[in-house]
Specification:
This protein is mainly alpha-helical. Helix content is 47%, strand content 2%. Strands 1-2 form a two-stranded antiparallel sheet. Helix 2 (41-55) runs antiparallel to helix 4, helix 3 (59-71) crosses helix 5 and helix 10 (255-261) crosses helix 12 (280-288). The longest helix has 23 residues, at 3-25. Heme b binds at residue 195. The active site is at residue 69.
């Protein structure tokens, strides 16, 4: 064999070894990622969510909202949880994050995991798995999820509005932003079914009530909305909310779709979902079948949870979920 052929063979062998080593170093997201490093990780998160939900049932809504606000903004990396610093503003302080709360409970889960296996479980995985468990607490489906995410080191506040849909945007814009994450139309319709639980602050609703009531709202629902939101300019710090679903406000079910088909959707995005020709067929299908809703929700939730994660040696495992390690090391 010529020296040139030997060199070429050696190069191929080196490339194969390098590729193997790289894959060994970064397996990406996998099922039961912590089976050796922290076998009880998912059980700890599940038990903590149960305990916190028993004490504060509204936490389940917060966990569900967390995954969307984190994973939809470029990467599922727990950047949402970072506090502001002198150099960067927190995503939590942006207008699109209005009303988000209960972040301290993520920290409680993190502390429990640190006692079990210090420095192993990422805040990103805690955020995703606590959202999954929150859905279960509310009566929704259990969704098997891969783990192995690592935490980002910086806030994405400056690009948040580019990625996170607003409740007043056109359905075309909303569809486009979801499509960028790989979530198709039925997936979008299913994820917005999260509006089946929780509540919406009057700040987000008054434009449909004042100075004149939106004629597209169901008249039977307007009186309730006006009672809950009596001020044209509500105090953002006041406890002025309307339940997303008056019928089953604490149950994750398909009642949301029946409501919006009856023009009882609170926000414009809810109304558009039930009237746009691209989304209405799926709304009607989910209104008829909770099994179909759960199936599509589980599929879309999984795609959302796997949006561009940091794995392998990228990012870090934060010691505290609200602070990047480099700040306090």
């Amino acid at each position: 064999m010529s020296s040139r052929a030997l060199f070429f063979f050696a190069l191929l062998a080196f490339s194969a070894v390098s590729c193997f080593a790289e894959n060994e170093e970064d397996p990406g997201l996998v099922m039961d990622f912590y089976k050796d490093s922290c076998p009880q990780a998912e059980d700890v998160i599940r038990e903590q969510v149960k305990l916190l939900y028993k004490r504060h049932k509204n936490t389940a809504f917060s966990w569900l909202r967390n995954i969307f606000h984190d994973c939809a903004v470029q990467s599922c990396d727990a950047s949402l949880l970072l506090d502001s610093t002198r150099r960067s503003l927190s995503e939590k302080e942006m207008d699109r994050s209005f009303g988000m709360r209960n972040f301290r409970y993520i920290e409680e889960i993190k502390e429990a995991l640190e006692r079990e296996c210090p420095g192993v479980v990422s805040c990103s995985d805690i955020l995703v798995l606590s959202a999954r468990e929150g859905v279960v607490r509310l009566g929704g489906p259990f969704i098997p999820l891969k783990t192995g995410r690592r935490d980002g080191r910086r806030s994405r506040a400056e690009i948040l509005e580019q990625y996170l849909p607003d409740h007043n945007e056109s359905m075309s814009t909303v569809l486009e932003k979801f499509a960028d994450m790989g979530i198709d139309t039925p997936g979008l319709v299913a994820l917005l079914g999260a509006h089946s639980v929780g509540r919406t602050h009057c700040v987000k609703l008054v434009y449909r009530l004042y100075p004149e009531v939106d004629p597209q709202l169901n008249p039977d629902h307007v009186g309730h909305m006006l009672k809950k939101c009596p001020d044209a300019i509500p105090d953002p710090k006041a406890v002025q909310y309307v339940r997303n679903d008056r019928g089953t406000p604490m149950i994750f079910d398909n009642n949301y779709y029946r409501n919006i088909l009856d023009n009882k959707g609170l926000m414009m995005v809810d109304h558009q979902l039930a009237t746009d020709k691209r989304t209405k067929p799926y709304v009607k299908k989910m209104a008829k079948s909770q099994d179909y809703f759960f199936k599509e929700f589980s599929r879309a939730f999984t795609i959302l949870s796997e949006n561009n994660p940091l794995t392998g040696t990228k990012g870090e495992i934060r010691q505290q979920c609200n602070v990047a390690n480099k700040i306090h090391n």
